[in-house]
Amino acid sequence: MDLNKLPNDKKLELCRNYFKVGCVFLPFVWAVNAVWFFNDAFKKPPFDEQKEIKKYVVFSAIGAIIWIIVLSVWVAAFQLNRVAWGSVGDSLSFILPLGRA
Amino acid sequence: MNFYYAFIVCVTYLTQVSQCERLHGQIYSSIEGSAACFRRLNGTHQMGCSSSDGGAVGIVQMIKDVEDAQWIIKNSTSGPYIAVVSTSLFQSVINMLIDDPSNVAGVLLYDNATMRPSSFSQESKCPNEYSAAPGSTCSSSGDTVWNTKGTGLLRKDIPFPIFFVPDSKADEIDKIEKCYNRYNLDKNNQVGVPLCSVQLHSFMYAAVNSAVCLRRSASSAFLTPTKVCDPLGDYNVYYSLFPRAQENETDRKPVTFVTARIDSASLFDGVAPGTASSVVGMVTLISTAATLSKMIPVADEKLYANNILWTLFNGESFDYIGSQRVAYDISRGSWPPVNPLSLSDIKLHVEIGQLGGSLDLFKDNVTWPLYAFTGNMLAEEIIEFLNDMTQTGNLTVSPILTSNLPPSSLHSFKRILNVTDMPELLLVDHRETFANMYYESALDMSDTIDYVYHNLTVGTNGEFIPTSDLLSKGNMTDKEPQVKISRVANALAQTLYKRVTGIPFVGVVDTSAHMVDEMLQCFLQTPSCRLLRAADFMSADHNTADRPASLYVGVATWASTPAVYAGHLLALLTGVHLGSNKTVCDELSEPGFSYYYLRGWNNTGVCVQTTMNFSQAVSPAFIKSDYDFTSNEFSTWTESVWQTMWARVFVTAGGSGAKLAGVTGALATIIAAFITYWLSVNSAVIFATSLDAPNPILRTVNC
């Protein structure tokens, strides 16, 4: 879809929907939202809906970044400690490694 | 049309004439008949070997002396290497390779019957050290040890795979050596040249310890419901002289408990001959039971107030699995399942322990000195038993009074039942240290006891030639192991006869060395032997394997054959042969007896009434809920699951072809890039088109 061909009110609606969908634990949608509407929020000449779009873009970006930090910390902690956690580590694993700890 | 036919004929002819071997077959030659070292785990550690998932690949290096092994570790230029080593050098180099495994991909061990080592045992110096009863002074790190030649490799985590090629597959080693001589002889020039290599694949699923692998096997995570290990275990065999089922609590006959072990072990899958480790003891027990059953018919049970309970334990190599289970079951009053035994019923426990190790030492003598270890010499039963045995059999059985008993099931009973005063006796043929130099190894074969099969005819009703006839006719000499074993069995039978009846035996029954000869053949040479054929179920197809059955206990989920063989032999040789046909036989059900319709000596089928039965030999650790695997109370051994085990030899390319391909590819890319650039720069010159006429394709697309 080419955003340039969309009227501004539709843009706002789309951006708001993406933000809402991202709220149900879908940080990747927030990330897409932030990148996709970045130009409309910050680069384009001002238009009526720009302020609203800007708000959603900023919130989406902050949300996505928090998610990325939380996930990276968890992944690192899990990978480093899975063996040490013993049975907890095994229960948290989706695929158990064969032939090693 | 003629041309078309000619073409078809030509193609058909060519495909038939040319050797259509697959490329895979042209590159690899598989090493057949090898046995891999695999992974076993206990409560705290993993032991044994595993390759990586794809198999271990290494350059072949024939180890002719210790320097060759040192060269791999220190001076080699390529690598990693697969060390091809004979059993005679294995023990000198293996620790060196394990300590510095960075350049070692694996080891291929081969047996050469002409140059066997004088000792070969991968068992620890103190077998089952951590399951020993209080009073044992054997310590692997100390000076007093039983298995002086033991290297303990069986209890080590080995960082690379090891495969064993038996002597019967010597041509496989010749194949590798030929390849080695052709490509690898020049040790200083191994970079960038084709080299003979071997790939060993034995990837093990389990890791860490039994608790972890059982937990992982039990978890049924989505996509990976993989079982990674199984508890070790099999079946114990027990048989009582008189049926015990009808006895009630008050008039239970006291029993003499006579035991031996079935199993042996080795580092390699499917190779556990256990000649002097377990077979001689087991054969002695079965022969004694057979003899005693002829001396005292089961019909006479009302006449006597004593009974004999014979038991063959399985899994004893791995922390006494079988005897621990029996002792545990006795402690909770559930063994045997029918009319359970209580500790007070056992008046004497005689274990026929490790016999056969010194047979080679005494091969030129008629004598075969035995030793009877006991923790409580003063018990009347013991003194009487030993006196009877030495007198009746004209044997030398030297008593040894000590609390430091050699590895045997006695440890389990003392430990689990907490008994200190039960009269017990362990019959072995060694003194302070094992006489068997090949204890629980792949080389504990029939030559350890100098056994030679005589192939004498068995009578149509299973009559064996009496030992005296064999000796007088010169079929056997009294220096042979068969005769010596039969004499021990005979002395034991007569002693036990006196224990049951109270009077010495005066009849003519005698343990035939011929029977021992046949039985040893079944366990040491081939399960496709006369005795096992006769003892097999009538309906079963007879085993036609031509190599000895592995006596390794195996995993509990899979019944292995040795216990079944031993049980059926006991049934055939001690049971009452009834005249019934199969239909009648299957319907017979007298309490205390089992009925087996076996093939019999004439292949016509015979209905055998016996008290023989099987009981589970699975460690209590696996049946007790919430058992702490680190507590060391019971055996916790498990065996890893694996998919396949194979080994193959091939020649790795020197790498020049691959380099050439890489360089050509890179050049082609650079040239292509250059041409593209040049074309795009000069496109106006080459493709002279009018700029006014827009590209028709672009015009139709409206993005």
From TrEMBL, chain A:
GO terms for biological process: Notch receptor processing; Notch signaling pathway. It is a multi-pass membrane protein. Keywords: Membrane, Notch signaling pathway, Transmembrane, Transmembrane helix. It is found in: Membrane. It comes from the Eukaryota. One of its GO terms (cellular component) is gamma-secretase complex. Pfam families: PEN-2. The chain crosses the membrane at residues 21-38, 58-78. Belongs to the PEN-2 family. PANTHER family: GAMMA-SECRETASE SUBUNIT PEN-2. This is Gamma-secretase subunit PEN-2. It comes from Pieris brassicae. The lineage of its organism: Eukaryota, Metazoa, Ecdysozoa, Arthropoda, Hexapoda.
Automatic annotation (TrEMBL), chain B:
The keyword Membrane applies. Pfam families: Ncstrn_small (PF18266), Nicastrin (PF05450). SUPFAM superfamilies: Zn-dependent exopeptidases. One of its GO terms (biological process) is Notch signaling pathway. Residues 36-206 form the Nicastrin small lobe domain. The keyword Thylakoid does not apply. It is found in: Membrane. GO terms for cellular component: plasma membrane. It is a single-pass type I membrane protein. Keywords: Glycoprotein, Membrane, Notch signaling pathway, Signal, Transmembrane, Transmembrane helix. Belongs to the nicastrin family. This is Nicastrin.
